[in-house]
Amino acid sequence: TNQPRVLSGIQPTGESMQLGNYLGAVRNWVAMQDGYDAYYCVVDLHAITLEPPEPEALRQRTRIVTAQLLAAGLDPDRCALFVQSHLPEHPQLSWVLECLTGFGEASRMTQFKDKSAKSGADRQGVGLFTYPILQAADILLYQADQVPIGEDQRQHLELTRNLAQRFNAKYGDTFVVPEAFIGKAAAKILDLQDPSAKMSKSRAENGTIFLSDDPGVITKKVKRAVTDTESEIRFDPEAKPGLSNLLAIHAAFTDTSVEAVEKEFAGQGYGALKNAVAEAVVAFAQPFAARTRELLDDPAELDRILARGAERARAVAGRTVADAYAKVGF
Ligand code: ADP
Ligand code: NA
């Protein structure tokens, strides 16, 4: 294939993906299956950087995310869908990149600072510090041209680009230097209870809409979303982050611009907008959850899909590691 290559990943943390994962990233993954040589990875090695889940729970979360990705529209005939831990090439390349990363450079990663501050663990694992480097390996292994991600991953992608360039300069042309693909409107979906933070699987229940939530739960979460004390519906992410977040969610689900949604609801109360947002999310989430449950009823088929994906991934990743290792002198 001479199509450009695309690679992206999602962590199997929690019992479900959240709204931001879908709108910020996965929706673009689905769109990019055609027109791109697409590789999508469930990054389970990244899921033990904080408190590691029970082994069986982690295995089940990997299946859940896989089923959700399929329910979202990924088609194993049009993309390689695989699990990171199935390919030892990821940590193999990561080691070489770790040795090229400056300690100060790694210390500047804001997600590391956020996550370590919030984890509350009495002992911080080194893996939490080095995971952006593993993430760089995840991307560079596949010689990806484009990486569809949410805004929160921009800094990590910049590190990935720097490491690719550094390796290439030292050992000769080896890695494609990837570009971030960040959608506009839905690149940063905010926590409904704390609009100063992005929505995340690892944040508190009430601010996060999980795509497995029941319609009643989704509606309640949207209605309780923190907004502001004014009453004017206006898209202004600086002054009105909570309200602007709702406008962005609505625009994304109805495939229009925030300007159009702003116009549609101008002069109406916040309640009307919240009702419409809840309806739009439920209209997507309900059939999505039903399809996910169907897929989870056949775990053997999920495992077959992932085994096939791993085989396709290995063909590319194996070549990259062999090339990089030979250049380093291994
Ligand atoms: P999480 O924080 O939910 O665990 P992941 O680290 O698994 O998310 O990220 C999977 C993808 O989803 C990444 O491309 C990331 O940029 C995107 N993403 C995560 N949260 C959001 C959000 N709130 N808004 C937009 N995109 C997001
Ligand atoms: Na494809």
TrEMBL record:
CDD domains found in the cross-reference section = TrpRS_core
Q: Motif 'KMSKS' region — list its residue ranges.
A: 198-202
**Which positions in this protein are listed as binding L-tryptophan?**
D138
Give the subcellular location: Cytoplasm
* Domain of life of the organism encoding this protein: Bacteria
Q: Which UniProt keywords apply?
A: Aminoacyl-tRNA synthetase, ATP-binding, Cytoplasm, Ligase, Nucleotide-binding, Protein biosynthesis
Query: Which is one Pfam family of this protein?
Result: tRNA-synt_1b
Reactions listed under catalytic activity = tRNA(Trp) + L-tryptophan + ATP = L-tryptophyl-tRNA(Trp) + AMP + diphosphate + H(+)
The record's note on quaternary structure and interaction partners says: Homodimer.
Which family does the similarity line name?
Answer: Belongs to the class-I aminoacyl-tRNA synthetase family.
Return the protein name. Answer: Tryptophan--tRNA ligase
Instruction: Look up and give the organism this protein is from.
Output: Jatrophihabitans lederbergiae
Gene that this sequence comes from = trpS
